[in-house]
Specification:
It contains 11 helices and 14 strands. The chain is α/β, with parallel strands linked by helices and 312 residues long. Helix 1 links the parallel strand 2 and strand 3 (47-54). The mean pLDDT is 91.
């Protein structure tokens, strides 16, 4: 897959099969669109093109609103590269770009700069200024633009339409299994190991404090999770806490992972955490003894869960 940062040096294609969107998470609904994109490109000896945007449009249009994303632009590019797409075009999203009407977007970008012959879009996809463009508008004017348009219907799982919004909500609620099911993969986050206050060591459960790399990365809801850890070329099993450590009167949200059978100093190292299941919510214990007993039980629960995860 060729990655193009902007359209400045993009050479117009003779038969471009295109889709556009933010594709946050590159979930199974997105992959349905990409599969169809490749099918059409192969049939017509064309090239598949994904048009996406960074910064995320909401960061530009609504800078005062909080935003949590499933993937950074780098993570998104890595996931998309596994889908056999020919071109990924990352368009810098600006206020000027957002002012393009749907007709300008189609003519100036899709037709004149990319060479679109077939546009594949997801269910209820909108584009252009104020998201005024729609499948119906494209379909009615396809003869004018010189390309065909195809809409992919809802990708369904257990009668629920898959969407990035629903995945974010599931993660925030700690429903990791539902989120992973919709993603079609395990949710992960990457960060650097930073120094903490070493309370875990006093409990015989030393932890690595994780500072997440991507500012807008969605952090799952508070609680204890069964996870695996990628450190360099090695995989480890562990359990992770997201929360405030109420037993110790904590006021700052932390991400702390206890790596099983591991005793190394890894400050400054980059680690990737892979989430499998939440085992309980964070609670305040009456004393340290109760906390230690619960941590032992948590470890047994996590080890049982991870025993059934084939990819570890």
């Amino acid at each position: 897959m060729k990655i193009h940062n902007g359209l400045g040096k993009f050479e117009k294609l003779s038969y471009a099969v295109v889709t556009s969107g933010t594709f946050d998470g590159v979930h199974i609904g997105h992959r349905k669109i990409l599969q169809r994109l490749n099918e059409i490109a192969c049939k017509h000896n064309g090239e598949s093109v994904i048009l996406t945007f960074w910064p995320h449009p909401r960061l530009v249009l609504y800078p005062d609103q909080e935003l949590s994303l499933l993937t950074s632009i780098e993570e998104k590019a890595e996931l998309l590269s596994k889908q056999n797409i020919d071109h990924l075009v990352i368009v810098p999203f600006t206020m000027e770009f957002s002012a393009l009407s749907s007709d300008e977007f189609v003519k100036d970008i899709l037709v004149d700069k990319i060479g679109t012959k077939k546009l594949v879009i997801g269910y209820d996809h909108k584009f252009g200024k104020n998201r005024s463009g729609s499948f119906e508008e494209l379909n009615e004017n396809s003869h004018k633009y010189g390309f065909d348009v195809e809409e992919i219907s809802k990708q369904m799982i257990d009668s629920n339409a898959v969407s990035s919004t629903k995945i974010r909500r599931a993660l925030q609620e700690g429903d990791i299994e539902k989120a992973n099911n919709f993603l079609g993969r395990y949710f992960r986050l990457t960060g650097k190991v930073v120094e903490g206050d070493k309370i875990g060591r006093t409990l015989n459960f030393p932890t690595a404090n994780i500072e997440v790399d991507f500012k807008y990365k969605l952090i799952p809801g508070e609680g204890i999770y069964a996870v695996s850890i990628i450190l360099g070329n090695n995989h480890f099993k562990g359990m992770l806490n997201i929360g405030y450590r109420p037993t110790f009167g904590g006021s700052q949200k932390r991400i702390e992972v206890h790596i099983f059978d591991f005793d190394q100093e890894i400050y400054g190292e980059s680690v990737t955490i892979i989430f499998y299941q939440k085992i309980r919510s964070e609670i305040k214990f009456q004393n340290i003894s109760d906390l230690k007993a619960q941590l032992q039980q948590d470890k047994k629960s996590v080890q049982q869960i991870l025993k059934n995860i084939q990819s570890i």
